[in-house]
């Protein structure tokens, strides 16, 4: 008999929540089989079994939150039988109970372990529908049968969009609240100056964001450098790329150009591609640029790995792929880890400039505003110009004023002469 424990699925994970069991007690389990879906501080993902046998006992029910290393299930030997102990007696619930041992509480009451309605319906068919964890929760909230939906994700996987497009059956009971699972809501009925107050518990991702941002502002002495970039040539270059692209080609965005410019500059300024940890400078050999993506009620930062070695089209393809995963809830912790620098762009929301909070373990983050067509003075004449403001937030413990200014000036130079981005 071997125990399955709550795994560490990300570098910062401290606890996990059981979302859905993908195997039932008595099911045969092979190495690599998806065993359970777990919510971590970064994403929801399926945990694959690293040992073969029979699932003999589920110790953690859906919805339970447990720290890393806590037992969540037991796997015995194959053929539906649990492994035997040294005394030759079967261990776990499949074997006879020891004299005087009380039966489990559920057994005493004659109540079987609870399952979600979605999982129960799938078990009756003996077939599991491919769907993201977020899509499963939304379907359950709307009273939808996943088997009746068409998946538009990879391999026919049902994603959030598919569930949102589907209509709930008219006979379905009123859907429960669509707030994140585990969140509590309370309202004060009394009349106050603020009116009726509603309180909500943040989900795990929101808790993690709150903790890390507070830690960053409290421990990293931020300073900010703002520069104005003439994006005229970048606008023209992107237009030329778009005009020369065939149908189906990925056209790099301005943000992809910014990511590439930062990656080249990071190669030239190693301390900007580092971090301050435990009283030491950490300088990273790989240049992995995180791209902030607005997810449902949260901000998630997936990573473009080795951005300095990739062309603009590859950066664009990678960014779109991982951003789509963030939005449909299928992004994995490895895709959210390993960032050495971050780009946060709010230009698409009409923001001209802002100061971003540094991600823990990184030396800096670049905040990018909108590209504005404004009058500018060139050689004594007023001419139209495409200008963009970019603000670099720096951790003063590792990146000093002059170094940060030189790095930011290099990013500006690369964007103003975008032909260098293709080299």
Radius of gyration: 26 Å
Which band does the percent of strand residues land in?
A: 25-35%
Shape, please?
globular
The major pleated sheet works out as: 6 strands, mixed
Would you tell me the overall average pLDDT?
81
Please indicate the count of domains: 2
Low-confidence stretches: 80-126, 171-175, 177-183
CATH superfamily of the largest domain, please?
A: Chloramphenicol acetyltransferase-like domain
Q: Strand order of the main beta sheet, please?
A: 11-20-19-18-14-17
CATH third-level topology of the largest domain: Chloramphenicol Acetyltransferase
Give the terminus-to-terminus CA distance: 57 Å
Order of helices and strands: EEEEEEEEHHHHEEHEHHEEEEEEHEEEH
Helix content: 25-40%
Would you kindly provide a written description of the structure presented here, covering whatever features stand out?
Mean pLDDT is 81; it is low at 80-126, 171-175 and 177-183. The radius of gyration is 26 Å and the shape is globular. By secondary structure, it is of the alpha+beta class. 25% of the residues lie in helices and 26% in strands. Strands 11-20-19-18-14-17 form a 6-stranded mixed beta sheet. A 4-stranded antiparallel beta sheet has the order 1-8-6-3, with no helix packed on it. It has a 4-stranded antiparallel beta sheet with strand order 5-4-2-7, with no helix packed on it. It has 2 domains: 2-165, RNA polymerase II/Efflux pump adaptor protein, barrel-sandwich hybrid domain (OB fold (Dihydrolipoamide Acetyltransferase, E2P)), CATH 2.40.50.100; 205-422, Chloramphenicol acetyltransferase-like domain (Chloramphenicol Acetyltransferase).
